[in-house]
Amino acid sequence: MTGIATYGWSVVAVPLVIAVLAATAGRVLGTRVAALAALAPAWVFAVGVAASARVLAGEEGAIASGSVEWLGAGLTVGWAIDGLTALMLLVVGLVAFLVVVFSRGYLGPGEALPRYFAVLALFTGAMSALLVADGFLGLFIGWELVGVCSYLLIGYWFTRPEASTAAVKAFLTTRVGDMGLLLALALLWREVGDLSYTAVFAAVPGMEASTVSTIGLLLLVGAVGKSAQFPLHIWLPDAMEGPTPVSALIHAATMVAAGVFLLARAWPVVGASADVQTIILVLGGFTAIAAAGSAGAQRDIKKVLAYSTISQLGFMFAAIGAGAWVVAMFHLVTHAAFKALLFLGAGSVIHATGTQRLDAMGGLLKKMPLTAGTWFVGAAALAGIPPLSGFFSKDEVLHTVVGADLGWGVMLFAASTLTAFYITRTTVLVFFGSYRGEGVPHEGGWDLRVPLVVLAAFAAALGFAGGPIAELAGGHHGEIDVLVASIATALAVLGIAVGAVSGIRPKQGADVTKLAFVGPLRWARNGWGFDEIVRQTVTRPACATARVLDRVVDRGVVDRSVEGVGALARLVGRGYSALQSGDTQWYTTLLGAGTVALLALVAYLGRGV
Amino acid sequence: MLAVDLLVAVPLLGVAAVIALGRGSATRPRAIALAFSVAFTAVFASLASAGVLTGTAVDGIRLAREAFPFWTLRIDGLSAPLLALTAVLGPVAVLASWGVREKAAAHHALLLGLQASIAGVFLAADVILLYVFWEAVLIPMYFLIGVWGHEDRRHAAMKFFIYTFAGSAFMLVGILTAVFQTGHTGLAEVLDSAFVLGQPTLVFWLIAAGMLVKIPAVPVHTWLADAHVEAPTAGSILLAGVLLKMGGYGLLRLALPIAPEVFEAARPILAVLGGVGIFYGAALALAQTDLKRLVALSSVSHMGFVLLGISAGTERGFAAAMLVMVSHGLVAPLLFLLVGQLYDRTHTRDIERFSGMGATLPRWATLFTFAALASLGLPGLSGFPGEFLAVVAGFGAWSYSIVPVMAGLVLAAAYNLRAVKGTLHGEIAEEWAEISDISAGDLVPAVVLAACIVALGVWPMFVLDMTGDALALIAALAGGM
Amino acid sequence: MSIESVVFAILAGVALAGGIVTVFARDVTRMVIGLAAFLLSIAGFFVYWKASFLGVVQLFVYVGGVLVLFVFAIMLVHRSTEGSPYLETRHDIASITVAGGLFIMVVTALKDFVHDPVAGAMVTGTDEVAAVLLGPMLTHFEMVGVMLLAVLVAVVIIVGGEER
Amino acid sequence: MNLLVVAMLLFSVGLYGVLTRRDLVAVLASIEVMLGSATLLLVGLGATGEMIAGTQVGGGTVEATGVMIIVLAAAEAAIGLALVVAVARRFRTTRIDELTGVKG
User: Fold this and answer.
1) Which of C83, C104, C123 is the last residue of a domain?
2) Domain check: are C3 and C69 in the same one?
């Protein structure tokens, strides 16, 4: 059984084959295409299990690998499975499998199922490629491919203009970050002459400090884009235009965590520069608290979760900045479980109510008890209530950040309190009070319920798996710090209390927003206005510049000056149209003139001979 | 080997056959043309057994020297990928003009003539012969644009002709100077004795001028957009697919080896031209509302990578240039093919007028999205390996100066996705709700191109295996200075 | 002044005169006569250089063939257009510059390479010409033959059919 | 030198005619002048008994090439005149300035 890890490349190949099959034969299969697509993550999960078992059994380093020259001398693409990869494969395989199951119930038979499930399988393969790559080139390939899957899935309902815009925005914003990663690769190639992890990591000690810092920074730019950290976070809230299961998989559990994975994977580079670490800590801490603030002001259930994801990723970045990438990985795993759970819970609610607006929900506890129950588990895990998984991982994050920089530690405590506040507020708005929407919401079929239960189990229990997770990631599991844990829990309770109060909306049809905080609310809801700043300072000027280049520079100056062959003719006195008058003899005269000129040139060149 | 000569002879025979057998018929010429272009592909495939795919050089048969003093053909690692491209695009171009009924015999004869002369350019191992083929390419292209083009075709055809003819006139002077001063016309002999050149700088720039117009480099790119917009689909396919490649090919084949020391000095200029082309072309493409013009200007951007790769002056940079050329030779034709198919159905290319075509034309939309993703350099498709290699090689040569190229890459994503969003996405336009999706016949050429794009993207070594030795030799020349 | 240069001068004079008349004449008959003089003097050059076979060919093909063609063509055109050919010349500076420039350029470029022929330097018999035509230039010979056939057909197609 | 001057003078005169004559027949006659002068120069070069392009050219080759040129020129004249006749029938004129069908 554990032997299948030897065929690690199959975690890329199998999903790709399935994607092709789903795309081509999907029409024939009907809704059964979901079953086909589910095989992809199932296989990834199986390989992850096998590999994890071998790592936990004590195998050191990469348990299996292979590579092939792909782009000329030295530029190889290969795969290798070690503990960190195995851990991520488990996460990706499990969440993706559950999301495929959930999607089966979430999307009706009228949807373009072959396209959806083919891209989902493609995503699984691309994400696996990112994970099992044995070097930066392979990672970059997977990195770009998951980005495009994200684009395709955000724009799944492409006839909705918002979805299309959001898809483009997501791709372009992450593309900016990707350029940093690409530049990092170019720099690594120049410095090392090899892009495989082992060669790069071996070369790091011999490099100049400034070079290491530059590489680290460039990698960080890539990670910031993919993981939606400030200032490239603007795409993630908009990405909620995609189907909710997609948000759960790509924009909560796996793809957006790739930035964290990258920094953990490249730790020998990132960790070699204290400056880079400081920047990561600052970025992560700032993002964590700013996004948590925004999450508290949202009116849309998915936007709450989107900002929450940005915020939680900020926690992970802060942990890496504090030097504890194993802790970041631990939080990544628990977050994947409880955030995917929350998203799928939201999906279940949206499926039942047909809306994403919080003010059109309420009182769903009685109508959808299973969804409500699993949501409570996820929400409590996110808020950091012991003994759920989020409590353990967040405690470790806070502990390490406090140890590294007290100031940012305090900020994270504040962010953590806000987290408890916004998720409680959302919970109250959705599940308590009376129903403010239309129709009669009820639970979905088994395919909607089973994933919720499974994820709830993981979200509840993963906290106790800190040891094995850390071991897989390749580090050591920290102890619970009683002081930090107590403060954090106390603050979480405070946040929950405030959130519960703010969330209580007794009357049907009341505008929730007016009853919450005043003043900066709108500002916070719009991501502190940063979106607008980017639009005014980057997007618009870029488009305007392009237009000016086209209308004024290219057609006005460049083209006209070279069409000045016509102007020459005008000088001769025949006017521009003479060049195209149909006067053959005039053409011939020009031809002759050209010949004479060329001969003159030849004569001039021939002087010396 | 006879097969080398057949690469020129088969399309020429096809011209004769189309004229002789296809006159007056609307449908017979296309069948004959398809047969001969497929025969071209078959001949090229037969050369694989001679090791062409691994970079082995194969000479054509030597005709009587007195009778044909300049007839020397040779296929090597530098020309093999581009000939492979020609072999793929020939049948695609014929299939793309399947619907041409007006003067069909002339149209298909010109297509085959174009294919013959392009193959000749890539095969010629004699500078005079090279020049003859180089000019011969212009004529069928001129008529394809001028006769079967759209509204403003005459102006575009004339502009195309004047630009490229002016460029090749400079090139002719450069070639003649080299011939007179070295006393040879054979490519190898000319290059071997190129050290006797009295004015290498002038010779290099004269030849390079012809190439830069063809590529095209900014600021002599403006013929391209007009020519593409007005050209019929098959013309656009061959224009973007192989004609532009003559520029990059010529730089590596002739300009660089004839004056390596001048090339060394010219590298920064080439790099700037390339970098500006990448950024400027992408910015222009972003501002277009005409879908075909957008694709045309994206060519300026992509071909900038060719210049960037060459400017690195290393084997890796040259390999990047070759990869980009082959990739662009697949992606741009696919885009033009698809835009042409859309135009056939809607008779407009205005992005603003389209909306929600993804729902109306699902098959077309899938292919168009695919092509746009290939164009923006998605890994796994053909655009990525070349552009990645160009960035790596460019960074090695020019360090952080290539950051504007990165901006160009972001813009590339922007204009491609804008094209997709503008046409495919959004609410379904009433105006186009009734039009029919592309037929199986339309699918064939598109799927052929798409398959090649995927194949090259997954396994770029296919091209690198061919070019390896040839590029190493050129790189040794460039580095030897 | 040697006899050779006298002969050369006479031939050159006739050729130039013929050429100028051909290009500038306003009367069709004069133009044809000028062309005939020009072609005849070219044949004279060939004979003078002892390329007698070539001279004979020039005589037969040009004077005997092409010139007659011209006369016929002029007659046919005359019938169709109901007016004699419009033989005015649009003199202009551009054309003079181009023609003169070409003359100057070529002469300066080649003056060191082109020497005057020595009378009798090319003593070749018809057999030698035949040997070349059927030996190294056989392919050309064949190709020209094929081309002539094509021209024959083409001319019939172009002019053929009833006059409408 | 004299040969070159004479031949090029003839060529230039012919070219001038091609560029300025307003009637197709006259243009063709001018072309004949150009062709004749080119043949003259070629055969004359052969008659110098010197090297051309690095190889000694035997008289036979020059003469044979001359024959080729004459034949080709004759063919050209035949086609050209045939076209002129056809044009005259179709458009009722052979004046170039009235035939602007090749407008670019």
Assistant:
1) C83
2) yes
Residues C74 and C103 in one domain: no
Structural domain contains residue B30: no
Which of A556, A579, A555, A558 has the alpha carbon at shortest distance from A567? A579
pTM (2 decimals)?
Answer: 0.82
Neighbours of chain B (3+ CB pairs under 8 A): A, C, D
* Interface membership of C106 toward A (CB under 8 Å): yes
**Domains: count for chain C:** 2
Count of domains in chain B? Answer: 1
Q: Which of A572, A589, A599 sits opposite C109 (nearest CB)?
A: A599
CB B11 within 8 Å of CB B115: yes
Q: Do residue C2 and residue C79 come from a single domain? A: yes
For residues D6 and C16, give the distance between their C-alpha atoms in angstroms, rounded to a whole number: 8
Q: Are C102 and A599 in contact (CB < 8 Å)? A: yes
> Among candidates B294, B304, B284, which has minimal Cα distance to B391?
B304
Estimate to the nearest angstrom the gap between the alpha carbon of A204 and the chain centroid. 28
Could you tell me if A595 lies within 8 Å of chain D, comparing CB atoms? Answer: no
A580 close contact with D: CB closer than 8 A:
yes
| Interface subset of B 60-79, CB within 8 angstroms of C | 63-64, 66-68
How near does any CA of chain B get to the CA of D54, in Å? 8
Q: What is the pLDDT along chain C (164 residues), one digit of tens a residue?
A: 577 788 888 999 999 999 999 888 888 888 889 999 999 999 998 888 877 888 888 888 887 888 888 888 888 777 766 665 566 666 677 788 888 888 888 887 777 777 776 655 565 677 777 887 887 778 888 888 888 888 888 888 887 755 54
CA distance D99 to chain A (A): 8
Lookup: tokens for A209: 């400090």
Q: Which of C83, C111, C140 delimits the end of a domain?
A: C83
With an 8 Å Cβ cutoff, is A599 touching chain C?
A: yes
Amino acid letter at D26? Answer: A
Record: contact B157-D54, CB cut-off 8 A: no
User: Cα distance from A573 to chain C (closest Cα, Å)?
Assistant: 11
Tell me whether 0.85 is exceeded by the ipTM: no
Residue A592 contacts D, CB cutoff 8 Å: yes
Identify whether the C-beta of residue C93 lies closer than 8 Å to the C-beta of residue D44. Answer: no
Question: Does residue B15 fall inside a structural domain?
Answer: no
Note down the domain range covering C37: 1-83
Q: Same domain, yes or no, for C40 and C99?
A: no
Q: Please state the φ and ψ torsions of residue A505, each to the nearest 5 degrees.
A: -125, 95
Q: Give me the residue from D15, D20, D96 closest to A584, CB to CB.
A: D96
Residue B355's closest CA among A443, A161, A194, A475? A161
Q: Could you tell me which residues come within 8 angstroms of residue A568 by beta carbon, excluding any fewer than 6 positions away?
A: none
B363 within a domain of the structure (yes/no): yes
Phi and psi at B477, nearest 5°, equal -60, -50
Cα-flanking dihedrals φ and ψ of residue A367, to 5°? -80, -35
Residues C102 and C157 in one domain: yes
Report CB contact under 8 Å: A606, B373.
no
Q: Is residue B129 part of a domain?
A: no
List all residues 6 or more positions away from C127 whose beta carbon is below 8 Å from its beta carbon: none
Give dist(CA C136, CA C146) in Å, integer: 18
Provide the β-strand partners of residue A68: A77
Helices (H), B287-314: 291-312
Instruction: Indicate which CATH number applies to the domain containing C33.
Output: 1.20.120.1200
Measured between beta carbons, the chain D residues lying within 8 angstroms of C80 are 85, 88-89, 92
- Position A478, amino acid: G
Spell out which residues of chain B touch residue C136, defining contact as CB-CB under 8 Å.
64, 66-67
Quote the CA–CA distance of B124 and B133 in Å, as a whole number: 8
On chain C, the residues whose CB falls within 8 A of the CB of A603 are 105, 108-109
- D54/B158 Cβ within 8 A: no
Domains annotated for chain D, with CATH where assigned, are 3-98 (1.10.287.3510)
